[in-house]
Design goal:
There is one protein chain. With about 300 residues, the protein is α/β, with parallel strands linked by helices. The chain has 2 domains: about 210 residues, Glucose-6-phosphate isomerase like protein, domain 1 (Rossmann fold, 3-Layer(aba) Sandwich); about 80 residues, Orthogonal Bundle (Helicase, Ruva Protein, domain 3), CATH 1.10.8.1080. It is built from 12 helices and 7 strands. The strands form 2 sheets. The chain has a 5-stranded parallel beta sheet, sandwiched between helices. β6 and β7 form a beta hairpin. α9 crosses α10. The longest helix is centred in the first third of the chain and has 21 residues. The protein is globular.
C-alpha cells in the first residue's frame, strides 16, 4: 500500500464524501435517479467556467492540424475510453484520416471492454506508446486524468513536453501548473461524486463534454462543417449514404435520384458534390475549386447559406 497515493486521494474533490447522497443505499429507485440528475446539473456549470481553457486548447489543436500535426488523447479507465471514443468518431463525422486524432488507453485496446488492473500505474508505458507513434513537436497531447495524478498519463505528458509537443491536462479536480505538467490545464471542478470516487459519473460526463467541444470546434475551424452540417463526411455505410443524399436534397434542391448520381460522381465526397451542384461543374473542377479555397465551402459559396428546404 502506497501511503503517498492514500494522502493524494484525501485531497481530491472527486474522492470526497457527498453529503447529499450519504444515505444513498436507503433511497428508492426514483430517489436515486433524482439525486443523480441533481448532481449532473453541476456539470454544465463547471464546464462553462473553463471555456477559456478549452478555447486555448482548440487554438493549439487547430494550429497543429494546419501544420500537419496530430492530436493524441491519453488516459486510463473511463478517461481513456472517452478519449478513444472521441477519436474514433472523427473519421466518420468529419472525414479525417484515422491518424489525425488518436486515442491511447492504458492497457491497450483490451482495456476498452475490460479493466486491466494496474495499467494506470505504469508511468513509463504512457511515454513509450507516444514514442512508438513518432510523437513530435507538431503534435498535441491531451492527458485525461479525473484524479489529476494518473501515472500513465503523467508519464505521457512528461514525454510530450520533452519533444516540445503541445500539452494539455483535462482533470476534474482543482490543480495548478506546478511542475509544468502541461501548458494548458482544463479543470472543471464538478464536486463530490454521487458515489465517492466513481469518476465515471460527473467527472466522466464533464470530460465527454469537453472532448466533444475540442474536436468539434477544431473541425469547424478547419472548414469541415458548413452552417451546422457535417459536409466532410464520407458515405461509407448505408446510413451515411442516406445522410449524404438528404443533405444534398435539402441544401441544393436536387431530387433524391440526382443526389444518388452526385454521390457516385463525387466518389462519396459530400463537399465535392455540393460544389458540383451549386456551381454546375464536374468533379475535377469542384475539387480544384475546393483546393483553391482550402476546402472551405463558405469561401467557395460566399454568403450563400445552406438553406434547409424541409
Amino acid at each position: 500500500m502506497n501511503q503517498k497515493i492514500y494522502e493524494q486521494l484525501n485531497l481530491l474533490t472527486t474522492e470526497s464524501l457527498n453529503p447529499r447522497t450519504a444515505d444513498l443505499d436507503t433511497f428508492s429507485v426514483k430517489e436515486i435517479l433524482e439525486a443523480m440528475n441533481r448532481e449532473d446539473r453541476e456539470v454544465i456549470s463547471a464546464v462553462e467556467k473553463v471555456i477559456p481553457d478549452i478555447e486555448q486548447t482548440v487554438t493549439l489543436v487547430e494550429e497543429a492540424f494546419r501544420k500537419g500535426g496530430r492530436l493524441f488523447y491519453v488516459g486510463a479507465g473511463t478517461s481513456g475510453r472517452l478519449g478513444v471514443s472521441d477519436a474514433a468518431e472523427c473519421p466518420p463525422t468529419f472525414g479525417t484520416d484515422p491518424q489525425m486524432v488518436q486515442g491511447i488507453i492504458a492497457g491497450g485496446n483490451g482495456a476498452l471492454v475490460q479493466a486491466v488492473e494496474g495499467a494506470e500505474d505504469r508511468e513509463n508505458e504512457g511515454a513509450e506508446e507516444l514514442r512508438k507513434r513518432g510523437l513530435n513537436s507538431k503534435d498535441v497531447v491531451i492527458g485525461i486524468a479525473a484524479s489529476r495524478r494518473t501515472p500513465y498519463v503523467m508519464g505521457a505528458l512528461k514525454y510530450a513536453n520533452s519533444v516540445n509537443a503541445a500539452t494539455v491536462l483535462v482533470t476534474c479536480n482543482d490543480v495548478s501548473l506546478e511542475g509544468g505538467v502541461a501548458s494548458v490545464v482544463i479543470a472543471p471542478v464538478v464536486g463530490p461524486e454521487v458515489i465517492a470516487g466513481s469518476t465515471r459519473l460527473k467527472a466522466g460526463t464533464a470530460t465527454k463534454l469537453i472532448l466533444n467541444m475540442i474536436t468539434t470546434a477544431s473541425m469547424v475551424r478547419l472548414g469541415k462543417v458548413w452552417g451546422n452540417l457535417m459536409v466532410d463526411l464520407k458515405a461509407t455505410s448505408e446510413k451515411l449514404k442516406a445522410r449524404f443524399c438528404r443533405i444534398l436534397t435539402l441544401t441544393t434542391g436536387c431530387s433524391f435520384q440526382e443526389a444518388v448520381e452526385l454521390l457516385s460522381k463525387a466518389d462519396g465526397e459530400l463537399k465535392t458534390a455540393i460544389v458540383m451542384a451549386m456551381r454546375e461543374v464536374n468533379d475535377l473542377q469542384a475539387r480544384e475549386i475546393l483546393r483553391e479555397n482550402k476546402g472551405k465551402l463558405r469561401a467557395v459559396l460566399g454568403r450563400r447559406k445552406p438553406v434547409i428546404r424541409e
